[in-house]
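Our consortium's second objective concerns turning raw sequence data into structural hypotheses that experimental partners can test. To show how far this objective has progressed, the report includes one record in full. It was chosen at random from the queue rather than selected for favorable results. The single chain below, 146 residues long, was entered without modification.
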Amino acid sequence: MSQVNAQQLLIAKEKFQKTYLLLKASVEKIQRYNPDKAYSADELEPYDALSDRFIRTVEIAIKYFRTYEYYLQAEQSQTLRDGLHRMKKLGLVTNTDIWLDMRDLGNRIVHDYVPEKMAEMYQLICKDFYDELSQVDKKIKRLSCD
């Protein structure tokens, strides 16, 4: 029997869904970032919230994947890439590389303050990365824990 039971998987699922809903709220109301504008601290707050929610959602999703993997097979992959490949085979993610890019972007957000780079990052979060996270949300909702 797996050391991860259905209740633990359900908790991981709920954590992801709550975190995803916060990201969704940010994405739906954020304005496109203008690298030529000098933003005030107050004007930057929605972008900071978006960044934080994005990073948190990716990390919580990865924790869910690890929990799901352990639930199914009573073992976890040795590397993030291997775990993502397994999630792709299971149909939860569409592309392993996009997940590695999302994880990398989360690390770069905290270090990059060049306006043009920030605009690119916010665009990726709101389009390609958000689309992938939305697909994961839909797929996780359909999974049963029995």
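The partners drew two points from this record. The radius of gyration is 16 Å. The chain has one domain: 6-142. Both points have been shared with the crystallography group to help prioritize constructs.
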